[in-house]
Design goal:
13 helices; 0% strand
Length: 317
């Protein structure tokens, strides 16, 4: 193969690798959030802190960033949806449902992201990719539910479940708007601004609510890990995948996070084991993921609209 072909395929390969790693972080998100939420004074405080910590960590990237007036409106919209409403609704919903439900319903974000990418970004996939996408979805369904619908307890935790779905819709909406912004703004500064806006919006609400900010020392390492990995690092990898393989393909692969979420839950609860249905679903997800990569269409096939590179190029975050 020519060197030119290798250079052209490398960014997309890195994009698929980025979304697979991001799915691991995303799978850890529900379980880690549930653990931290048990030691934090209120969901409002946790929502504030997981925006503040990555905002501070990414702040040095803002030294040279410039945002046009038109992009500022989109930036505010994406921030309010993804960094304010999404976390707030999610954590209050997480208090009202089970860990197994949260692992399952967190993947609603992937579904909404794919649908919005199809409807508003004009992204398309090949027929074989759609088949592989279906395999990933079925595998995620098997892993999360074990086909034991009574255990999922949707009716008993209806309010919490609906709140998790609403939060997923907020994040997917933010992803769609961010996909447009990524054409002109680099990944890290964009996330720094979004997290910063989220923290600024939460600060007066936290003060007015008089919610205590005293976080137990024992939970601080887990809080920082949650903020910097499952929030910060996940977002960087997720947006990088957006810029290299598109929102639709990124959203299609994200449901593999269910597998990692279940595995983490089993690790933290060693008395529980994987069922045969979950093993079958996990194998289906892995196989479908491999097929999805093999069957991937060309970078700019007819009828497909993948986002152009950002001003600093697709390889730069």
């Amino acid at each position: 193969m020519s060197a030119r072909w290798s250079l052209e395929i490398a960014p997309r390969t890195r994009g698929y690798l980025a979304i697979v790693i991001a799915a691991v972080f995303f799978g850890a998100w529900p379980t880690l959030s549930k653990l931290v939420l048990g030691s934090i004074p209120s969901p409002l405080v946790l929502a504030f802190l997981i925006q503040l910590i990555p905002a501070i960590a990414l702040a040095p990237s803002l030294r040279r960033v410039r945002v046009s007036r038109g992009d500022a409106k989109l930036l505010l919209l994406s921030s309010l949806s993804g960094s304010v409403l999404g976390p707030l609704i999610y954590f209050y919903g997480l208090e009202r449902t089970t860990a197994s439900n949260s692992v399952l319903l967190s993947n609603s974000e992937a579904m909404f992201t794919v649908l919005l990418a199809y409807a508003f970004l004009g992204e398309r996939a090949t027929r074989r990719e759609y088949v592989a996408l279906g395999g990933i979805a079925v595998g995620a369904f098997l892993v999360a539910t074990e086909l034991r619908f009574g255990d999922v307890q949707f009716l008993g935790f209806l309010i919490g479940n609906l709140m998790l779905i609403a939060a997923a819709a907020c994040w997917a909406s933010s992803n769609t708007v961010s996909s447009v912004l990524l054409r002109r703004i680099a990944i890290v500064p964009l996330l720094a601004i979004q997290f910063g806006i989220g923290a600024i919006c939460y600060a007066p609400i936290v003060i007015l609510s008089r919610a205590p900010l005293d976080v137990p020392l024992g939970v601080l390492p887990l809080l920082f890990f949650l903020s910097l990995s499952a929030v910060g690092m996940f977002s960087v990898l997720f947006f990088y995948a957006f810029r290299t393989i598109g929102a639709m393909r990124s959203g299609a692969i994200l449901p593999t996070s269910v597998l990692w979420g279940i595995l983490l839950a089993r690790l933290l609860l060693p008395n529980e084991t994987l069922s045969e249905v979950q093993i079958l679903g996990g194998g289906l997800m892995v196989g479908a993921l491999v097929a999805f990569y093999i069957f991937r269409g060309p970078a700019k096939a007819e009828g497909e609209t993948l986002k152009p590179a950002a001003s600093d190029g697709p390889d730069s975050p």
